[in-house]
């Protein structure tokens, strides 16, 4: 479930300056495709189009064969978990922020035991004050802690599709490694689009797409790309 297809996708914020110039690729259900490339290449724009922050101007993006423009933003986003570079949290408790986005409203605030076990790893590493408000006078979370909250939220939401948009790039090396390990667990068996700035962080991807100036410059497995360069 969750196969993604980009077909000849074009996009420009300013009509005089095309950002994506005919992008086509697929993420088969359950697989991981990484998009790497220099800053400004259009990587984040790609992920934002899939999440429908913006609509494409020509071409098609489909999820499970369905054009994403024909489904509501809400139903599209219910199948996609997005872990951005800098997670912005609601001015509420960590618990609230983790629960936010749960699709089954009937479960309310009650966590199933299995879910608690799944997210315990992240919560353990959060500071005291799980029920204290995150905010100016409340809890101060580091970048790594915020990313753990975003990942825990994504685990609870359990979406078939994941977008990881430079999810670890704002973190120090040690935290990056910890968060990466967590993300590897979450993305296993989910359709995953990873946006990364370095090839070395996406070694395990099923396919890597190198984006340059809004065009696909190269594509292949990590090993194949290394061999060619
Ligand atoms: P990358 O993720 O590869 O660094 P982006 O997709 O963020 O690239 O940006 C591609 C280009 O689009 C850049 O030149 C950037 O300045 C421009 N851009 C990004 N977001 C906007 C926006 N909201 N409005 C106008 N231009 C933007
Ligand atoms: P939806 O609730 O329909 O999925 P939203 O645009 O409200 O769409 O939110 C998309 C995702 O972005 C949410 O799942 C959440 O992770 C995050 N998000 C949005 N707004 C905020 C916010 N103000 N604070 C924290 N996270 C937010």
Task: Kindly summarize this structure in a few lines.
The chain is of the alpha/beta class. Helices cover 30% and strands 24% of the residues.
Write the layout of secondary structure elements.
Layout: E1 4-11, E2 20-27, E3 32-36, H1 43-50, E4 58-63, E5 66-67, H2 73-78, E6 80-83, H3 94-99, H4 113-124, H5 143-157, E7 161-165, H6 173-187, E8 191-196, E9 207-212, E10 215-220, H7 222-228
Helix pairs in contact: 4-5, 5-6
One adenosine-5'-diphosphate is lined by residues 74, 77, 82, 88-90, 101, 153.
Written account of the structure:
GO terms for molecular function: ATP binding. This is ABC transporter ATP-binding protein/permease. Residues 4-229 form the ABC transporter domain. Keywords: ATP-binding, Membrane, Nucleotide-binding, Transmembrane, Transmembrane helix. It is found in: Cell membrane. By secondary structure, the protein is of the alpha/beta class. It has 7 helices and 10 strands. It has helices at residues 43-50, 73-78, 94-99, 113-124, 143-157, 173-187, 222-228; strands spanning 4-11, 20-27, 32-36, 58-63, 66-67, 80-83, 161-165, 191-196, 207-212, 215-220. A 6-stranded mixed β-sheet has the order 6-7-8-3-9-10. α4 (113-124) runs antiparallel to α5 (143-157) and α5 runs parallel beside α6 (173-187). The radius of gyration is 18 Å and the shape is globular. The two termini are 34 Å apart. The structure holds adenosine-5'-diphosphate (ADP) (2 copies).
């Amino acid at each position: 479930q969750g196969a993604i297809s980009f077909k000849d996708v074009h996009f420009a914020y300013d009509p005089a300056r095309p950002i994506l110039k005919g992008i086509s690729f697929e993420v088969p259900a359950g697989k991981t495709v990484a998009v790497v490339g220099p800053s400004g290449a259009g990587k984040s724009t790609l992920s934002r189009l899939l999440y429908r922050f913006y609509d494409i101007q020509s071409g098609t993006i489909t999820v499970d064969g369905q054009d994403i423009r024909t489904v509501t933003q809400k139903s599209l986003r219910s199948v996609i978990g997005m872990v951005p570079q800098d997670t912005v949290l609601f001015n509420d408790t960590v618990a609230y922020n983790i629960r936010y986005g749960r699709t089954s409203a009937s479960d309310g605030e009650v966590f199933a035991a299995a879910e608690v076990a799944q997210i315990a790893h992240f919560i353990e590493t959060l500071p005291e004050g799980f029920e204290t408000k995150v905010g100016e006078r409340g809890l101060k979370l580091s970048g790594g802690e915020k990313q753990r909250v975003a990942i825990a939220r994504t685990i609870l939401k359990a979406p078939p599709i994941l977008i990881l948009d430079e999810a670890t790039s704002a973190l120090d090396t040690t935290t990056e490694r910890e968060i990466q390990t967590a993300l590897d667990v979450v993305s296993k068996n989910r359709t995953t689009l990873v946006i990364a700035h370095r090839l070395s962080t996406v070694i395990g991807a099923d396919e890597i797409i190198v984006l340059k100036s809004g065009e696909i410059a190269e594509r292949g497995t990590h090993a194949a790309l290394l061999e060619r360069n």
